[in-house]
Amino acid sequence: MSEPAGVAVSSGSAPPAETIPRPDTPAAPKPLAAQRVLPLRRPGRWIITAVVLVLVAQITHGLVTNPFYQWDRFRYWFLRPTVLDGLLVTLEVTAFSAVLGLLGGILIALGRLSGSPVLRAVSWVYTWLFRSVPLIVVLIFLYNFSALYQTLSLGVPFGPAFFTFDESRLATDMAVAVVGLSLNEAAYASEVVRGGILSVDQGQHEAAAALGLPQSYQFTRIVFPQALRSITPNYVNQLIGLIKGTSLVFYVSLLDLFGSVQTMGSTYPGDIVPLLLVATVWYLILTSAVSVVQFYVERYFARGATRTLPPTPLQKLRTGLRDLRERARREAAV
Amino acid sequence: MSTDTAGTLAASPAAVEVHDVHKWYGTHRVLDGIDLIVRPGEVTVILGPSGSGKSTLLRVINHLEKPEGGYVSVNGELIGVRRQGDRRKMGVSPTEGRGRLKELSERAILAQRSRIGFVFQNFNLFPHLTVLDNVAAAPVATGKLSKPEAQELARELLGRVGLAAKTGAYPRQLSGGQQQRVAIARALALRPGVILFDEPTSALDPELVGEVLAVIRDLATSGTTLVIVTHEIGFAREIADRVVFIDGGKIVEQGPPAEVLDHPQHERTRDFLSKVL
């Protein structure tokens, strides 16, 4: 056992000229333990990689050089106030609907999981209804809602009213958009939240119950934080759908990002392609921002669930550089 | 004091009293008329083949399972139910006499559970909380201690189970034996009158069993009332004041370990012991 190890040490400390492997000198093969494994050649992968690179280059070249895209017009429109106003509307509608939708979704999920058959049935029907009806139908329905009910009042059901609202004043375009998107979003969010709660181990519910923790504490401090780990990726998926779903509010005469681009496009028909590109790039930016936030939120909720947290991109970069340097040092030593 | 009937114990209530408890899962009868009395400070070990109802019995005691018949009381207090009716007809003891049983509110049941410690086979620590927060959470949440007091108590208890250095770790970073010791500290943090152990060493690697048993042994000698479901016969012989053998949802025999383990009277007990020893 000790013999090959001794040989390995001696070959390691030998002059560098002799350690370069020469196929024509079989007299001095390295002992197995000192040899580096030659990586498997993968010619098929190289060919596919080359084809893909060529395709990517072609598409990029086309994007940049095709005059059809009118990149100068893109630059002109990208930060125009009318586009930015639309972006602001998109952000507002998304933010309100995301928060209201999630809160509604949590309530409906709790209804689905409650002990009362009536609450279970009502929340099931809600989810069933709003997942079945297209968002655009909900929005246009709400838009015409004030024709169905002129006033909304707060009071005893079927009895006297304490407060009465004039619906046509209450239902601004923004309110219609947020309510419509939230109603739709809550139906999907409820299933995301319910799935998250069901994913928490039954033993956690039992341990919380066995310790006599108050019910609200069991949910807010024990079950829900663990559920959030699986809720986060699914809800972000939902959220990205919502960002793009806001483009439908154009049909209830609210000028969001898509709406303002569409309006400008009909005023300047020659600029429709660069205007659509402006909207595309802004939607890309919004989705990317959400994805970055998602990474850190997921990392936060992973604490305790994994033994070591996944590295942040910065940490990955740092370890990557260190590995490269070490590899270079090893290569230089051989 | 030494008789095994409920009536004569009215003066000093039993730590745990299980009276004619029945439990069904669907059409399967799990508990079939269990009567059991655990005196304060006593260590009771429950043995029995798997599926015999041992764990269910333990879960009925802290009302994680609702019994279909009979009742349970802990330190003289009915668990999960209260009696409604004329107090004068009920007698002095809360478990004697007549009166209609009425289901307690969820809040009241939770308050009762906070006085009964429970240690699970799979630890069931809260993975998103540090070891210290796992132990300190319940006294704070139930309003028994302030947060700094609870954390001080948690440090003391973690020291007692030999984990003073692990307060900042998350449960998944610990070995199974360490996790179960944290779970025991978590149960102790509520200063329960009785602690129930549901196969506390069954999920552990053999070399980790000893450290958990040492902590339980320490509790047993300090006079805490313990009810332990286990397969560790040697441990039962060592620390039990009484061994209860259950099969088919019924108590087959019970008595001091020297009697039940070394001179079992029933064929089923002999059969079981011959397989596990």
Descriptive report:
- The complex is a heterodimer of chains A (334) and B (277).
- Chain A is mostly helical.
- Chain A has a domain at 80-260: MetI-like (MetI-like fold, Orthogonal Bundle).
- Helix content of chain A is 72%, strand content 3%.
- A two-stranded antiparallel ribbon of chain A has the order 1-2.
- In chain A, helix 7 (135-143) runs antiparallel to helix 10.
- Chain A is flat, with a radius of gyration of 30 Å.
- The two termini of chain A are 24 Å apart.
- Chain B has a six-stranded mixed β-sheet with strand order 8-9-10-3-11-12, sandwiched between helices. A four-stranded antiparallel β-sheet of chain B has the order 2-1-4-5, covered by helices on one side. A two-stranded antiparallel sheet of chain B has the order 6-7.
- At the A-B interface, helix 11 and helix 12 of A face helix 2 and helix 3 of B.
Throw out a few tags for this protein.
heterodimer, A: 334 residues, mainly alpha, MetI-like fold, two-stranded antiparallel ribbon, 2 strands, 72% helix, 3% strand, disordered N terminus, B: 277 residues, alpha/beta, globular
List the helices and strands and how they pair.
The complex is a heterodimer of chains A (334) and B (277).
Chain A: H1 2-12, H2 16-19, H3 43-65, H4 71-78, H5 81-112, H6 117-132, H7 135-143, H8 145-148, E1 151-155, E2 161-166, H9 167-170, H10 173-198, H11 202-210, H12 215-245, H13 257-267, H14 272-301, H15 313-333
Antiparallel strand pairs in A: 1-2
Chain B: E1 16-25, E2 28-38, E3 43-47, H1 54-61, E4 69-74, E5 77-78, E6 81-84, E7 100-103, H2 106-113, E8 116-119, H3 131-141, H4 147-160, H5 176-188, E9 194-198, H6 206-221, E10 225-229, H7 233-239, E11 242-247, E12 250-255, H8 257-262, H9 267-276
Parallel strand pairs in B: 3-10, 3-11, 8-9, 9-10
Antiparallel strand pairs in B: 1-2, 1-4, 4-5, 6-7, 11-12
Helix pairs in contact in B: 3-4, 3-5, 4-5, 5-6
